[in-house]
C-alpha cells in the first residue's frame, strides 16, 4: 500500500518524511518521570550518559495526508505512524529495549498495528485475566489489539515503524501504565531477547507468540467501512 510517506533506513533506525508532517515526540526523561521503565537506576544512568534521548515519534497522518484525512473524516478511524528508535535503556549495551509508554483505550474499541519496517514486539496485558501476551512482529505483519488490552510496543534488534488504525473516540488512558509499567519487559542481553517479569506485578501469566500477515491497512483504503466495523464495539 502507498500511505504517501517515505521511510528511510539509517543504521538500525528509521525516519519518515512527508509533506506537512504533524506529530509529537516522547523522550527518555518523560518515561523516567512517570516511572514506566523497568529499572529507574539504569534509565537514569543512560540519561546522565547520553542526555534526553528520543525514544519515539508519533505522526498523525490523518491530519494532513489528503487521502487519509478524507477516509478518517468519513469513518472516524485515525491512522497514525509510530517511529520507535532502537536502543536499550541502560548505560551498557544490555538492558530494556526502547518502548512506547503504553495505554488502554478509554472506550471499548480495538486497534490494528501493522509493522511497516524494522522489528517490534507488541505487549498486550489483559488485566481482567491477568495475562500478558508478547507478540513478535516482522515487516508486513499485523496485530489486532483487543478493546480491553493495555498495550505497548518494544523495538527489536532494529527500530520499528508501525501504522496504527484506531477509532478517534477510543481515547488513551495512560494511567493504566503510569507508576508501574507493564508486567513483562523485553530486554536485549548479549544479542538475545529476554522477557523479565516486573516485580511490581504479581502472578501474571506470560505467553510469547508471533504476529500474522494481514491486509487491514490495504482494506482501510479499499473498504474503510469494513475496517471501522472490525474496530467497533
Ligand atoms: Fe492503542
TrEMBL record:
Gene3D superfamilies: Jelly Rolls
Residue ranges constituting the Glucose-6-phosphate isomerase prokaryote domain according to the UniProt record: 44-191
InterPro entries named in the record: G6P_isomerase_prok, RmlC-like_jellyroll, RmlC_Cupin_sf
Catalytic activity: alpha-D-glucose 6-phosphate = beta-D-fructose 6-phosphate
A cellular-component GO term for this protein: cytoplasm
Similarity comment: family membership: Belongs to the archaeal-type GPI family.
Source organism superkingdom: Archaea
GO molecular function: glucose-6-phosphate isomerase activity
Alphabetically ordered keywords of this record: Gluconeogenesis, Glycolysis, Isomerase
Name of the protein: glucose-6-phosphate isomerase
Pfam family, one: GPI
One biological process term in Gene Ontology: glycolytic process
Originating species: Fermentimicrarchaeum limneticum
Entry keyword annotation includes Endoplasmic reticulum: no
